[in-house]
Amino acid sequence: MEYRVEVVKEKRVKRLLKSAVKIIAVISVISGVFWAGIGVGSGNIVLGRDAVFHKSVQKNAPANLNYSSVEQVYDTLRQSYDGQLDVNKLLDGLKTGLTQATDDPYTEYFNAEDAKKLEEQLTGSFTGIGAELGKDADKNLVVISPIAGFPADKAGLKAKDIIVEVDGASTANMTISQAVSKIRGPKDTKVTLKIVRAGSQQLSLTITRDEITVPSVKSDVLSGSIGYLQITQFSKDTTQLATDAANKFKQAGVKGVILDLRGDPGGYLDSAVDISGLWLDSGKTVLTERRDGTIVQTYTTRGTPILRGIPTVVLIDEGSASASEIMAGALRDNNVATLIGVTSFGKGSVQQVVELPGGAELKVTIARWYTPNGKNIDKQGIKPDQEVKLTEDDFRAGRDPQKDAALNFLKK
Predict the structure, then answer these.
(1) Is residue 67, in this structure, part of any structural domain at all?
(2) Which of 23, 78, 310, 395 is 20 to 30 Å from 373 by CA-CA measure?
(3) pTM score of the predicted model
(4) What's the pLDDT score for residue 350?
């Protein structure tokens, strides 16, 4: 879920609205990482440093659309529809339909209510089941990652599970925001999900909703003087919390560090860049953004590399997406970390979020991001240096072979 949240206002927004004001469709948010039920992608939104529109690469698109056919549909509805028309819903529907027509799961329109949920996602506090949803290549509603210790995780929901029904309603044509709305609900109420696992196994899980509060950073010093740093998402406070943990590791004289990015859907891009600087010298490349094949921006580290030179293992899995993939790729490409686990989610695009009147927002894919070695991992993910799987049996028995492999690697 890499999202870069950039707020673009005033004249630029007005220019955007001029070409979009008559186009609108049905409430949908195909967010590659949208805290499903917590409310994901999504991962997962990422804040960039420069709030600007990039030069258009749509050379064949007209400056304005012909809305006559849209007006014809509206006139027919207004004259013939046997029911009440809600103008705001019609407009929201048109805007959503316009973004859906791009066929890009990360380009989407948020009405004011959905935009508020999007912001709540990054605060780490909401009500739901504690799972992150996305769309796979076949547009199935899939679980990106359940949050450890919360209802979805406790009920046995797994990354890559396909959700085919929510309380008996098919998800075949359901957007992520629609699914989130159905899955969310008051604390102590229940929601039943029908899922397909590993392509064939069908399961029904009834999950009791709860308050979900997720600290973005957890840290500890393990036996053998190994520092353990887990980042669950890149929020506004993550950089400071990770820096505090790094200072504690340094004071404790740790001999190695495990950076656990499993199930991390992403978040603020700047956090991923700044935390990478705990290992990398100032000025080292973390990622580049390319638009139409041309590099438009390079993100480099800044600050003090507190953990420089300390052997580090990064744990990744299929729930590691967006900003967490950026960080894992940056540390490996700069030769300061070894990756252990399984191939990550594969989110290699960058989004920009534009504030619209009335609290609505437009999120649009503006570029692709590449690791320092020039690799784009979209739909491919990052392969670990050492593959270690965590099986169903491991999960039930409370075993963590991936973490064990990291400890063994660092103790060599």
Answers:
(1) no
(2) 310
(3) 0.71
(4) 84
